[in-house]
Amino acid sequence: MTPSDPGASAALAAAWMALAVSGLVLAASWLTLAVAGCASDAGGLSHPGGAAPATASWDDVGPAPCPPGAWSVDGVCTPAETAFAAPGRTTYVVDGSDPSASDGNPGTSDQPWRTISRAARAGALRPGDAVLIRAGVYREAVRPASGGTGPDARVTFAALPGETVVVTGADRADDGWTRQPNGGWRRPWTGGQMLPYSDDPTFRLELMAADGRVLRPVGRRAELASGRFWREGPDAAPVALVARFEDGRPPSQAGLVEVGTRRVLFAPLGPDPYAGCGDPATPGWIRVVGITFRHATNRAQEGAVCAGSEGGLFEDVRVEWTNGLGIDASGREHTFLRTRADLNGQMGWGGSCQRCLFDETAAVGNNWKGHDPGWEAGGGKWTETSDSVFRRHYAAHNDGPGLWLDGDNHRNTIEGGLLVGNRGAGVMLELNTTGTLVQHTVVAGTRWVEWTGSGVLSQAASGNAFVHNTVVANEGTGLWLRLDPERRAPDGGNVVANSWIVGNAASDHEAREVAVEGLSPAHVRTNTFEGNAYGRRGRDLFRSTFFVHPAPEWPADFRSDDLAGWRRLVGGDRTARLVGPGERVAASAVGPVEAGAAGAGVVPFDRVGADPSRVRAGGDWRHAPPTPWWPR
Predict the structure, then answer these.
(1) 130 vs 84: CA distance, rounded Å
(2) Which residue among 13, 427, 595, 606 has its CA within the 20 to 30 Å range from the CA of 66?
């Protein structure tokens, strides 16, 4: 652990450098929209229910402000020494920058421990105990062997408020480099095996950073270029790393050089060292506060950070620049507050979670390694998740869906979300996902991939409800209830109500404002539409307002802006309107909606579209931060 490392906090700053990268940026969506004649009035597209707040918070949504060294407890700023431990329990201290720190010390402020792993040993923290971690870069894998016993007796790992604590999977690699004839630099490999589970170079595990910026891994020496590196030798016995640093610099002038050596950064450890994240035998009731985790060499689908078996509480945590999955949220009754999973190689969030809460969380710029967005990549993908709430979640510029429920998810609520510039879909419900309530969510600027760029996409999913959402300026169809081509699970029985679906199909691809498909006209009418507002796109075969399949009386399905025809085919939407930019439309009465997690049902609003006061950053998608920097 070397707290004085230069570049200890450089990665985050580098991440948000706006570069002109390939693919759609939000400005391109606006341009396409203007060319299509769907003008850009703020009230019309993004906030049909009212203007957004003048100031919007995009990055961190912090707790109640307190001075350094204090934390808000029930709204009262409390000294950190007593803020995290339960009454009568002990607060220990880790301070790797203190020359006298030792894991043989008692862990007091005067005699602190040197590593966080000392606090993670079995029995080191009793239920209700806490460890305060002083500023520094901690090069270790933290594997808590003991947990808490309940919500009032968690064990807590907390960064001292006001100080920056980074846990990294990388070690320093400043020396040992020799110049190569082609202008690259070679360093002998000092780590272990790097075994992926696919021959696809995207799945390789090696990770390297210089001056806080991750270098792009390549699969062959011939692909080396500025800002790239290659691992020489077989996966089972790597030989060396060969790198070309940016602008032709030698390692001595490239800033701090680091090489990833650890796959796991934080994960509770039970009796079976190979147990998956969330396994009931692993410790639970663990709280983590204010720590940044980065640079794990984890596999795709393998979380660098795991919350444990149950009752995890993660506050103001960042997981960034890992090789694979950022946070595995598997388990039950976990709570994630103001926690971010950004710029991870494959995906930000994932896992299977029961009765969990994701509140003011975020996923930005994930899948920089280029995994297939249709497989498992992007902002986050959850399976077998039930009775959970995703509230005010922000997902942007991910190379894959923003928020994806895929495979046996039931009775979940997505509300107040803001999903901007993702790829393939903003919100995607798939494969026996049922009983989901998506409400007061803004989805904008979704980019096209292969066959979709939908704001909201449902397939092989049924009995879900989409109420009071704003779906605008997506390259593909705004809201698509797709009949799953492989019939993997039932479709139909959905509710779409009081939603603003305007200015979509904002590209040259075939798309609509809204599309619904079924096995028969009667199957189409199992879906309920009521009180929605749609943009008028005309009757073009490729970019119409409405699409309905099957529609036997039309030779090529129903592709039209004929509102009366739409109402007849779907058997409802009697109060729907075709609108222009800037219109404000009163909401319609909607019958009972049987969807969502317990206690997180439909929230009414007097206008069509999302209520800006309930949406992250007021729903102001136009002023979202630009696409972050990725290694190329």
Answers:
(1) 6
(2) 13
